[in-house]
Structures are given as C-alpha cells and as structure tokens.
Amino acid sequence: MAKILVIDDEDQLRDLLQKLLTRDGHEISIAHDGKEGIANFHQFNPDLVITDIIMPNIDGIEVITELHQSNSNLPIIVISGGRRSMAAGFNLDSVEMLGVRGILQKPFTYQQLQEVVKLALS
Fold it and tell me: Which residues contact 115 (CB under 8 A, 6 or more apart)?
C-alpha cells in the first residue's frame, strides 16, 4: 500500500487517521503541525499527504506550497474544519488551485476517508 504523512494539530483526529489508515495497510507517519510535517516529509518520502489547514507554526496552505515545490506531483488531501476554517477566512477554492487532490470536510466517515485516499492515489 502507500506511505501516507498525516499532519494535524488535533491529537484525537490525527490518532484516528493513523489507526484507520494503518488498518487499510498503509504505512503512516504523523506530524503535530506544519513545521514538523515539512521535516517529516523530507525524511519519510510519502506517496500521499493528508494535512489540516488551520494549524500553529506553519498552516496547511504554506505546507502545500512548500511540499509542491519539492514534488509538484505529490497528491495532497486537505482536512477542512468547517466553522473553524471559515472563521479563519479559509476558502476551499484556494486549495483546489494549489493542486490538492481531495478535501475531507469534518465530520467525515471512514468510507469517505477511504474513497478520497483511493482517488488521490490513483
């Protein structure tokens, strides 16, 4: 299966994603924020990145931009936090212009996670 880097500052969500994606046979690396995510990216060399947008230190938009400079074909899925993202002025259209291959809007189901991962990796 795939090597997936999960970047999210919410412990429960990050741990759940790790558990579910591991169950599906993927190798997972996790990061607690964008800064750690970029560092892990260069060490782990993932096939796919799943990142939150609103995070401390370096936000998801900066992460996407940085990672695509290193690998413009890297599939990335973003996690949208609904009201939290809207309050921060986040616009889903902006990430689509950055080449994001999938969006998971909270709350999402296990089936939705599987579908967006499969699509992003195809």
Answer: none
Beta-bridge partner residues of 98: none
Q: Which domains does the chain have, with CATH numbers?
A: 3-121 (3.40.50.2300)
Q: Which amino acid is at 92?
A: L
Tokens of 40: 């892990």
CA 30 to chain centre: 10
pLDDT tens across 61-98, in order? 899 999 999 988 999 999 887 554 444 445 555 666 67
Q: Could you tell me what percentage of the chain is helix, strand and coil, using 3-state DSSP and rounding each to the nearest 5?
A: 50, 20, 35
What is the C-alpha end-to-end distance of the chain, expressed in Å?
12
Q: CA 59 to CA 14: how far, in whole Å?
A: 16
- Give the model's pLDDT for residue 97: 62
pTM, two decimal places: 0.90
